[in-house]
Prior knowledge:
Shape of chain A: globular
Number of strands of chain B: 5
Order of helices and strands of chain B: HHHHHHHHHHHHHHHEEHEEEHHHHH
Helix content of chain A: 40-55%
Structural class of chain A: mainly alpha
Number of strands of chain A: 1
Shape of chain B: globular
Number of helices of chain B: 21
Strand content of chain B: under 5%
Radius of gyration of chain A: 26 Å
Oligomer: heterodimer
Strand order of the largest sheet of chain B: 1-2
Distance between the termini of chain B: 74 Å
Strand content of chain A: under 5%
Distance between the termini of chain A: 90 Å
Radius of gyration of chain B: 24 Å
Largest interface: A-B, 120 and 130 residues
Structural class of chain B: mainly alpha
Helix content of chain B: 55-70%
Largest sheet of chain B: 2 strands, antiparallel
Number of helices of chain A: 10
Amino acid sequence: MTTTENxxxxxxxxxxxxxxxxxxxxPDSGPSARRYNYYKPAKRKQTHYEDVTVExxxxxxxxxxxxWIYGFADGSRGYPLNWTKLKAWGVDEPEPERGPGSGGxxxxxxxxxxxxxxRDPNEEWELTMYRYNANVERQIGQNVxxxxxxxxxxxxxxxxxxxxxxxxGAWMHIEHIFGLYVFAACNRSGPTNMHNxxxxxxxxxxxxxxxxxxxxxxxxxxxxxxxxxxxxxxxxNNDAEWQGVRKVAEALxxxxxxxxxxxxxxxxxxxxxxxxLFRSNLVQQAAPGNGDYVxxxxxxxxEYDFAQRDLRWTQACMGLLTQDxxxxxxxxQLMQGWLSxxxxxxxxxxxxxxxxxxxxxxxxxxxxxSLDRAKNRFAGILADLGLDAPKExxx
Amino acid sequence: MSRQSLAKAHQKIQELSWExxxxxxxMKYGTDYTFRKAAKKDxxxxxxxxxxxMQEEKDNRVYGASDGAIRGNMFRQVxxxxxxxxxxxxxxxxxxxxxAARSMPMLFQAVPNPELHNGQAIQMIDEVRxxxxxxxxxxxxxxxxxxxxxxxxxxxxxxxxxxGTIGRQFAEGFITGDAITAASIYLTIVAxxxxxxxxxxxxxxxxxANGDYLLPTVFHSVQSDESRHISNGxxxxxxxxSDEDNRQLLERDLRYAWWNNHRVVDAAIGxxxxxGTKDRRKDRESYAEMWRRWIYDDYYRAYLLPLExxxxxxxxxxxxxxxxxxxNKGYVHEVAQFFATGxxxxxxxxxxxxDEDFEWFEYKYPGWYDRYGKWWENYNRLSRPNGHHAIVxxxxxxxxxxxxxxxxxxxLVREDMVVDKVDGQWRTYCHEACRWTDAVAFxxxxxxxxxxxxxxxxxxxxxxxxxxxxNWADVIQDxxxxxxxxxxxxxxxxxxxxxxxxxxxxxxRRMPHVASPNVILNEMSDSEREAFVADYNAQxxxxxxxxxxx
Lengths: 395, 550
């Protein structure tokens, strides 16, 4: 066999250019020039997360010398700092006035205001978010597959089957609403790229968890005889127990033009008082006694999202504001008002959920004990933020 | 989870669709479009259970290749001419990407179809990926390429540079104004469906030919997500078309979005591909040939034209005019010449053109040498400091152009420039279509119809205005485009890194002051302005004065 060359084939010719770092010495060739130099890191050394996130969303108070170039019909433009009533130091300082011959007036002492102090403690960017969520999906898939192979669902009592099909199923709707209409919705509103990326990642967790619950529900429909895959819709739309939770969740999407209140109300108030109450203090506690070791692994993934990641960034975000060097009092007062508004609604919704505690054959801890646990956890979160537990919490 | 079929899984997650019972979500973003009919299905049929592992696998390939590039000393073979233009491109592109993520919730509210929201949410996640993966690629270049200057102060540069606003339209246009105009028509229907082909497919091909296989690795991975976004746009467009009242707005927005994308993307990507490459094989496609294939044939003829039967009014005239601009009026060459003219205000180094380049351009664009050859010879002649000024301040038969108020690319095809007094200010526009965008389209009424949600063109849209009357050395210092010795410019009109051959602030100090063409225009009397317009329209090609003989 002979090899023939195609003489018409045309390919670019590699050339040795010696264009690698260190090949020559000239101004800016040293190692100190090999770092992004337009921002100050939160700690001594710049992190990978900061490098791919900080300053991607411009700010006219920093380097955006020609200002935003598109505006909304009402004249607002870019990412207005008044899309929340929360304030960070420096925001009341006027934007640099630029015009003919003014020069660019770039920021002299970065950052220009306190919103830029925020860093997501989870340091989320694309690499971390895919690794994390892919791992969660793989683990859930393996857990459920293992349970299916082991016929683990056969151990469930009929009452527990009804509980999972209606109530565990109903929870998917809460996660979905928050994922799309709170966190994704707010990722257009935050004052910096760090805020908006944290909100987008929080949204991913919620949407993923909602879908995990939906697909778990589908598996159970296929595996458990008599499992009604549509019962969650009936519970969500009609069960009195769920209407209070639904009402608060929907109200959180309807907050009047304040992304800060939406995030605070959801992650600081709703999630500890209702989310953890249902997920950790009811489902996780009740399932083992009812022969179910699978549901807690699905529910637990969502719980980890909140407890270890979503709450963490929210605390870091809100904590900066309650300790703000200029607006701490303003922010605390505002948040106390939000607590007075949202806590009673969440407690009322929690009490509407109470009948669920008596439905499984093997009972979880008493509702009042579960609620106390949720309240204690909530009070601890508030204390960490320097906020007072509202009087409504003791009611 | 059991091995459910994707179709069943996707069907199941539709049960998550939410119909508010007690409270409607706060409607932050308005639109003048209406969606009273024809709910469409989610075209993506993507569930996160499969999405996240798929994306993780794509990431593994990208980061594996990045590691390989460093271990294999890719930078020994990278063409500096090419990598220098990446200082501009990679400073621009993370913002449009993240803006696309931010625009998705605008569609949740504007498009009342919960099934489509799933696809839009996945697009939001994709876009976070794109922005940070590109920011990371730039970081890798900064760490491993011979000259980190320009990469290391990338985002400060882009936000204040004299051509930054050209790229920023491709971001702010996605997130501001009427939600459908911005996030659907401008972003998904035109930018993603038409122009990402040249951005993310054609340009990476050119990168590979210049020894850089990381750009293709990252951007082809990005492009593999774009096909999903194109489906999002198509579904929304079909919904919009089913409501007769939307057709007038669709016609307006397609005209605006098409023309603006052509002006902005063709200016930038055309320049990178034609003037940033060292690959001068005669059988490699020119930007014009790529454009004809990717945009004219694949987008216009294969995607847009079939929509005509659904009532979409397609801007045939503007599409043909875009081709006319690229092929007959030298649009890309004029832009590249402008970038090189203003090299002092940049943060990357621009290599001059050689005889081999001249030959290629003449072969691909007959008549190129007569138009542009002399100027590029002057560029080379003036590239090393030797007692003369930078080319922008030397007499090389080039009239510094006025900016287009709308697209902010200068009015380079001189015969097309128009002026108009809008909002009490005399403005220059590169073409009648750009004048129409500002004076007619971006207004609260359109052809007698109220359009209260339409956005506005705002900001200091002419960069030169800010520095009117300034010394060039002060301008460059103000922007921060100076290297770590405190005097050598980040930008250079050549690739020689010998410090003795590099321009410094001292050279700039001797140049004439910056003058804002728009400030001067607004100081003219009516008769002076008429004379100015007549003279300007008689200029060119290649920026030659009206009375130039060569």
